# Entry
Amino acid sequence: MVHRYLTYGLYGAMAAVLIGIGLFSGRFMLYMTMKVMILAIFAMGYNLLLGRTGLLSFGHAAFYAAGAYGLGLVSLHLSSHPLLGIFAGLAAAFVMALVIGFFCVRHTEIYFAMLTLAFGMMVFSLIWNLRSITGGDDGLVGIMRAPLDLGFFSIPLRKANHYYFFVLFFFLLSIFLIHRIRQSSFGLILAGIHENDRRIEFAGISLRNYRLAAFVISGVFAGLAGTLGTLLESNTAPFSAHWSYSAQPVLVSLIGGIHTFAGPMVGGLIFIVLREIIERFTHNWMLWFGIILLVIIMGFRGGVVGALSGFAKQKKTASTEI
Amino acid sequence: MLQSIVHVCLAGLSAGMFIWLVASGLTLIFGVLRVLNFAHGSFYMLGAYFCYTFLRFMGENFWLGLLVGPLCVCAAGFAMERFFLRYVYHLALPYQLLLTFAFVLLFDDLVKIFWGAGSIGSPAAPGLSGSISVLGRNFPVYSLFIIGVGPLIAVAMWVFLERTWLGCIIRAASSDREMASAIGVRVPALYTGVFMFGTWLGAIGGGLAVPYVGLLTPGMGETIIIDAFVVAVIGGMGSLKGAFLGALVIGLLSSFGTRFIPTFDMFLTFILMAVILVWRPQGLFGEST
Amino acid sequence: MSLPLLEIQRLNKSFGRVVAAHDIDLIFEPGVLTSIIGPNGAGKSTLINLLSGSIHPDSGSIFFEGQDITRLPIHRRVKMGLCRSFQVVNVFPELTVFDNARIPLLALRKRAHGLFRPVGGEKDVHREVLEVLERVGLPAEAGTTASALSHGDKRLLEVGIALAAGPKLLFLDEPTAGMNPVERSKILENIRSLSREGKTTFVIVEHDMDIVFSLSERVIVLHHGVVIGDGTTEEIRNSPRVREVYLGEEVPS
# Structure
């Protein structure tokens, strides 16, 4: 019970800090915090698939890009209303994840990973080569952050400190939704799949359908991250669809802790901050990142959150023993 | 028209042979160790850089560089298997893949530190430079040489695996690990050996690529590893015969694709990979599980 | 006229040269506590896998309440009411006992799709889970993590998960494997009383005849994939063919 209030307290504190940053910080801090939140949305959704069903996808960059290009195309050609753009991006990511997922969830393990890689790279190759639609290697440029027009009043988003609260809203919404999903019947079934995917079918549950659902949900969150990232940068990058970009949420989840709810958020923060610090001092951030990754895999597979909660548990049992 | 098709074929074959060299090591390692090694492309890159360095040091002797360079890369492969990979065989797939991915990041940046982030121009192979006329159009001699070397290595590997005692043990270990250890094979040592051999194959591919690619770049391993994945998947993960034929198919497909439908050239490769995975996940030549 | 619960027609399955099921014809009527016995390698596991859908037969048909289920996937069969338990402990180790039983019940009551509704809000499912735990004798362990249970209790939970799916016909694969005599008599007593309730028809698969003889109303004997005996306990005990094949092999050990 105490643990539960502590958790709520921590989330409350996080929300307060994030609001504080939005009110009192400079442009750089705002930009970095938005990047952390967007990456965390991407990773939280991704981890619903990886952490709960054990499926490792190399195709989620494609859904991120679907969100990005969906928003970009609507915003450039139809209407620059941000909610319409986000809706288009989410719809594109949803449809793409449904189609790709339909084929991919037939397999598991390495075959699943390779199949998602293949589909993801198909999307990348289309984005890269269909210059007339996607802008090829330049991406879509000049995407405006139009005011958020809600009919009776409209909120400007052009300035970073305005857009920040827009991102914060979606970040908190994502946390809420994913938390609810994990607590739901569907979430319990996913936990069952994670524990024992052979047995789950003998409980009368279609393994394939639940995997597909988890795949699509995580794909939609990737799409949401894509739309928010595009509005932040005001352009789309074709390499956001490349398979190596799919490695990012995996790394983030791993740093934070795959089997924890807060892992992807903590991981996202560490990833962005660490990258910024390392890049400031050396040109070789990949080297350091590789080393960090090695250390995590060889010794700290629970990730930061896993290690912390493990430590807390140990302390608790130690104190009860005394 | 005929001339053009023949030339596109030849270009595809030579490109396919490089993919085959990388994919052969990849698929061999997967077949025995059951680990898909993202860093295999890095071995290709390291092979190229080491060859280049040795041939510079040893009086521009390409062949000597080709001999020594890949052996140095083998040492890197040894370290990777012995001190890292060995401890994750029992872990879930994501950890294994990410471990090898960590090495991709590491090797890429190490190359940048030691050889610089820019591209390096590479020398021609002595005696194999220049072109000869094929059906009235010039074709590089070195590419023809590569088209010859690829099958040669394939045959050598086939003889090694099918006709020698060591090859027999490797095949036994790849089909049943417990059985192999029960009959007295030292499986850990065998794994290290196979990993080093696979590393060597990738590195020799990189070494041979030095005169072919013209420019050495720190990211050169990442492009070829994806092709090698495609090839390994199409042929059947763990199947050398499949990797050879798969490499030919992918080499030719992308060569014709670039020539005739450049917009969908990459798309074709990956849709082939996806179709095969959906329809026959064990690949064209893999054993069904 | 009433349809039999399960009907198997000329079922065949072989693995390479090993024939695991040869022209098996069987009919299971509701309410009859049946045992399938046979020495190791007789084809019992294959039969249970064929019926529950883990593997597909080379030829032959399976009908459940008159419907052809030969090619149906596992989860569809479970939904129709054909379920099984496992010989090795096959539970959800890091979930609580309660959640272990809750998963099949959610599927049974079609409450497994709720995305945003907290699972704790399913009050009737909650009540039914407690009922199931009561029936298998684990009500006190509801909050325990499954992996922390004793071996005997894990076996009970194994049966509990299978029961929670609301089966009309339940195959129990060596439900007493690895149990001590006390646990064994407890679980057998459990099965007897559950069978009397009449909601579920039990079929016990065992290699040890003695365990099931006292319990069963009908015994089926398998040997090398062929049914060599089918009748009451008394008939099987006196069948010369069964004695020759089955006892002849069992005795030397």
Observations:
- Chain B is about 75% helix and 5% strand.
- Chain B touches chain A through 43 residues (CB under 8 Å).
- The domain at 2-279 of chain B is CATH 1.10.3470 (ABC transporter involved in vitamin B12 uptake, BtuC).
- The CA atoms of residues 118 and 217 of chain B lie 7 Å apart.
